[in-house]
Design goal:
The chain is mainly alpha-helical. It is built from six helices and two strands; from the N terminus they run αβααβααα. A two-stranded parallel sheet has the order 1-2. Helix 2 crosses helix 3. The N and C termini lie far apart (41 Å). The structure holds a DNA duplex.
Length: 118
DNA sequence: CCACTGACGAGTG
DNA sequence: GCACTCGCCAGTG
């Protein structure tokens, strides 16, 4: 398993996140077959950013918040707008209600817990 | 080779 | 819920 393949897996997972839902860094790491490497996911995404067809804005941290970047980028604001445009809402704390909007790959078959309403 | 940094997360008090 | 620590790993100087 090369690092290049790991990055490819990360991108592949992120690309599978449906519009209107979000995934956490740790979640993406697990789905990519590298549990515990959440940090690497963020690192990989910073490299891709809008550099490719990757919906990077659908990845947030475990608290359901947009992780602040370094360098004073306004990307975090762009990310929030993109998500809101897809129907994802934020609460007073600027957090996404994960139980409502977190992507559940396994549920795509059941569709029962896939409720996004409210 | 070592130290530091960075879109994180789980555990502890 | 908040502050702190430790684990993870690639890039950079």
């Amino acid at each position: 398993m090369t690092t290049a393949n790991s990055y490819r897996e990360i991108y592949s997972v992120v690309a599978r996140i449906p519009a209107g839902r979000v995934a956490t860094y740790g979640q993406v790491a697990r789905l990519a077959g590298m549990p515990g490497h959440a940090r690497q996911v963020g690192y990989s995404l910073s490299a891709v950013n809008d550099h490719g067809p990757i919906p990077w804005h659908r990845v947030v941290n475990a608290k359901g918040m947009i992780s602040p970047r370094s360098g004073g980028d306004h990307m975090e604001l762009v990310q929030r707008l993109l998500l809101e445009k897809e129907g994802v809402s934020f609460d007073e704390h600027g957090r996404i209600t994960l139980p409502h909007f977190q992507w559940r790959p396994l549920d795509t078959a059941n569709k029962r817990t896939q409720r996004v309403d409210e």
